[in-house]
Design a protein that fits this description.
The protein has 3 helices and 4 strands, in the order E-E-H-E-H-E-H. With 96 residues, it is an alpha/beta fold. A 4-stranded mixed sheet has the order 1-2-3-4. A hairpin with a 3-residue loop joins strand 1 and strand 2. The chain is globular and about 30 Å long.
């Protein structure tokens, strides 16, 4: 699992995830991901290059969204496709 961050106009931080967001991948990126969501208020998580999403990955995203919201911020998920989008719908992540 790979994680990249970039600053966009409007004080938005884009967090791009690449690979499998399973238990191993979630552990690999947990610290830098949590750092980003606690330091920034507007987070855009790009899932375009995530090919697999497990419950560990969903948990990472949910905890990140809650951490961001607790500071008055917002976390938005961008471009989940195919099976990744289906997992997020089943987990009702789209209802947040």
């Amino acid at each position: 699992m790979d994680i990249r961050t970039e600053e966009l106009p409007g004080q938005i931080t884009r967090v791009t995830l690449v690979g499998r967001l399973d238990s191993t991948g979630a552990v690999e990126i947990e610290l830098p991901f949590n750092t980003a969501v606690t330091e920034k208020r507007a987070i855009l998580v790009d899932l375009t290059s995530v090919v697999f999403l497990s419950s560990f990955g969903v948990r990472l995203l949910l905890v990140g969204a809650k951490m961001c919201a607790a500071r008055g911020g917002k976390l938005v998920v961008l471009c989940p496709a195919g099976p990744v989008a289906k997992v997020l719908r089943i987990a009702r992540f789209d209802a947040l």
